[in-house]
Predict the 3D structure of the following.
Amino acid sequence: MTRTPQTRLARPLPHSGFALMEAILTVALCGIMGTALVVSIQRIAKLSYEAKRESALSRIIHNELFFATTNPRLQEGQKSRHVEEWDVDLETIVTPLQDLLDQEGQPLTKLYKIEVKAVWWEDGEYVNHSAETWRHSDLYAR
Protein backbone atom coordinates (compact mmCIF):
# COMPACT_ATOMS: atom_id res chain seq x y z
CA MET A 1 0.00 0.00 0.00
CA THR A 2 1.39 3.37 -0.93
CA ARG A 3 0.85 6.47 1.08
CA THR A 4 -0.73 9.46 -0.47
CA PRO A 5 0.09 13.03 0.53
CA GLN A 6 -3.35 13.35 2.13
CA THR A 7 -2.73 10.56 4.63
CA ARG A 8 0.68 11.99 5.51
CA LEU A 9 -0.92 15.41 6.39
CA ALA A 10 -3.68 13.81 8.42
CA ARG A 11 -1.17 12.52 10.97
CA PRO A 12 -0.12 15.19 13.56
CA LEU A 13 3.50 16.22 13.75
CA PRO A 14 5.15 15.16 17.00
CA HIS A 15 6.58 18.62 18.01
CA SER A 16 3.99 21.11 16.66
CA GLY A 17 2.47 21.99 20.12
CA PHE A 18 5.84 22.95 21.59
CA ALA A 19 6.40 25.77 19.05
CA LEU A 20 2.96 27.22 19.79
CA MET A 21 3.66 27.07 23.53
CA GLU A 22 6.97 28.93 23.02
CA ALA A 23 5.22 31.65 20.99
CA ILE A 24 2.52 32.16 23.64
CA LEU A 25 5.14 32.28 26.41
CA THR A 26 7.21 34.83 24.45
CA VAL A 27 4.21 37.09 23.89
CA ALA A 28 3.25 36.85 27.60
CA LEU A 29 6.78 37.72 28.77
CA CYS A 30 6.94 40.68 26.38
CA GLY A 31 3.61 41.93 27.74
CA ILE A 32 4.82 41.66 31.35
CA MET A 33 8.08 43.46 30.54
CA GLY A 34 6.24 46.19 28.64
CA THR A 35 3.84 46.75 31.55
CA ALA A 36 6.73 46.91 34.04
CA LEU A 37 8.54 49.41 31.82
CA VAL A 38 5.50 51.69 31.54
CA VAL A 39 4.91 51.60 35.31
CA SER A 40 8.60 52.41 35.94
CA ILE A 41 8.51 55.35 33.53
CA GLN A 42 5.38 56.71 35.26
CA ARG A 43 7.05 56.47 38.68
CA ILE A 44 10.19 58.19 37.40
CA ALA A 45 8.09 60.99 35.91
CA LYS A 46 6.19 61.46 39.20
CA LEU A 47 9.41 61.52 41.26
CA SER A 48 10.99 63.96 38.83
CA TYR A 49 7.99 66.30 39.07
CA GLU A 50 7.99 66.10 42.89
CA ALA A 51 11.73 66.87 43.03
CA LYS A 52 11.28 69.82 40.68
CA ARG A 53 8.35 71.14 42.72
CA GLU A 54 10.19 70.75 46.03
CA SER A 55 13.24 72.53 44.65
CA ALA A 56 11.15 75.36 43.21
CA LEU A 57 9.16 75.83 46.41
CA SER A 58 12.31 75.87 48.51
CA ARG A 59 13.82 78.45 46.16
CA ILE A 60 10.64 80.59 46.33
CA ILE A 61 10.63 80.51 50.15
CA HIS A 62 14.31 81.40 50.44
CA ASN A 63 14.06 84.13 47.81
CA GLU A 64 11.18 85.68 49.71
CA LEU A 65 13.24 85.49 52.93
CA PHE A 66 16.22 87.06 51.17
CA PHE A 67 14.05 89.85 49.76
CA ALA A 68 12.56 90.60 53.19
CA THR A 69 15.98 90.47 54.87
CA THR A 70 17.64 92.85 52.42
CA ASN A 71 14.84 95.43 52.53
CA PRO A 72 16.49 98.62 53.86
CA ARG A 73 13.25 99.79 55.50
CA LEU A 74 12.58 96.89 57.82
CA GLN A 75 9.24 97.32 59.58
CA GLU A 76 7.31 95.15 61.97
CA GLY A 77 4.24 93.50 60.46
CA GLN A 78 2.92 90.89 58.05
CA LYS A 79 2.80 90.74 54.29
CA SER A 80 1.07 88.05 52.23
CA ARG A 81 1.22 87.14 48.57
CA HIS A 82 0.21 84.29 46.29
CA VAL A 83 2.48 82.63 43.73
CA GLU A 84 0.18 81.57 40.90
CA GLU A 85 2.66 79.34 39.07
CA TRP A 86 2.97 76.88 41.99
CA ASP A 87 -0.30 77.79 43.77
CA VAL A 88 1.51 78.73 46.99
CA ASP A 89 0.50 81.28 49.62
CA LEU A 90 3.45 83.10 51.22
CA GLU A 91 3.31 85.08 54.43
CA THR A 92 6.27 87.18 55.60
CA ILE A 93 6.22 88.06 59.29
CA VAL A 94 8.61 90.60 60.84
CA THR A 95 8.60 90.74 64.65
CA PRO A 96 10.98 92.50 67.04
CA LEU A 97 13.10 90.33 69.33
CA GLN A 98 13.15 91.46 72.93
CA ASP A 99 14.82 90.41 76.16
CA LEU A 100 17.99 89.25 74.40
CA LEU A 101 21.37 89.81 76.00
CA ASP A 102 24.86 89.61 74.54
CA GLN A 103 27.77 87.77 76.20
CA GLU A 104 28.47 90.76 78.42
CA GLY A 105 24.87 90.98 79.63
CA GLN A 106 24.02 94.07 77.57
CA PRO A 107 20.56 94.13 75.98
CA LEU A 108 20.44 93.62 72.23
CA THR A 109 18.16 96.15 70.61
CA LYS A 110 16.79 96.67 67.13
CA LEU A 111 16.84 92.95 66.32
CA TYR A 112 14.03 91.49 64.24
CA LYS A 113 12.97 87.97 63.47
CA ILE A 114 11.96 87.54 59.82
CA GLU A 115 9.92 84.44 59.04
CA VAL A 116 8.45 83.30 55.74
CA LYS A 117 5.67 80.71 55.87
CA ALA A 118 4.47 78.88 52.76
CA VAL A 119 1.21 76.92 52.51
CA TRP A 120 -0.02 74.84 49.57
CA TRP A 121 -2.40 71.98 48.83
CA GLU A 122 -0.80 68.66 47.95
CA ASP A 123 -2.06 65.07 48.00
CA GLY A 124 -5.34 65.96 49.72
CA GLU A 125 -3.86 68.03 52.56
CA TYR A 126 -2.25 71.37 53.27
CA VAL A 127 1.54 71.42 53.45
CA ASN A 128 3.39 74.04 55.52
CA HIS A 129 7.04 75.06 55.23
CA SER A 130 8.86 77.99 56.71
CA ALA A 131 12.24 79.69 56.85
CA GLU A 132 13.44 82.30 59.31
CA THR A 133 16.37 84.51 60.18
CA TRP A 134 17.28 87.44 62.39
CA ARG A 135 18.38 90.87 61.30
CA HIS A 136 19.47 94.10 62.89
CA SER A 137 17.34 97.02 61.73
CA ASP A 138 20.38 99.25 61.05
CA LEU A 139 22.13 96.67 58.87
CA TYR A 140 21.59 98.63 55.66
CA ALA A 141 21.53 102.12 57.21
CA ARG A 142 23.72 104.77 55.55
